[in-house]
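dumping this here before i forget
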Amino acid sequence: MMSKKRFFKLIADIIIIYSSYWVAYYIRFKTNFLLPEVALDYNKYLYISIILFVIWILPALFFRLYSKVIQRIYRKEIPSILYTNIIYIILLMAVNFYFFHPSTFSRLMVLYHFIINVSCILLLRVSIHTLEKKNEL
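structure:
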């Protein structure tokens, strides 16, 4: 049974994963920042977004991102977050290249997604640990 704090982290991570995916899509294809050479199909990205959680949870469980031990030891949680995100991005790229031709998927968007995802999750965890030290959470 998951504690409320671990369940909150899981839900927050899921929200961050989906949000960072669509923010990365928006930055890559809707802004004038590093314009893509070809406009890629929105539906392909929508299909992949459906399975983002499944792709995320596999490395998260492997690196024990939501275990009690990791959450108590702050210096072990940061590498777990990084390792989980690295494996997650590798799996995401593998799924994308399996279902779509490599030329129809933006690797730069995946890089944006990785950077935004890691930054937001680390920021969330630092905030949680800071609040825990102040006994507010």
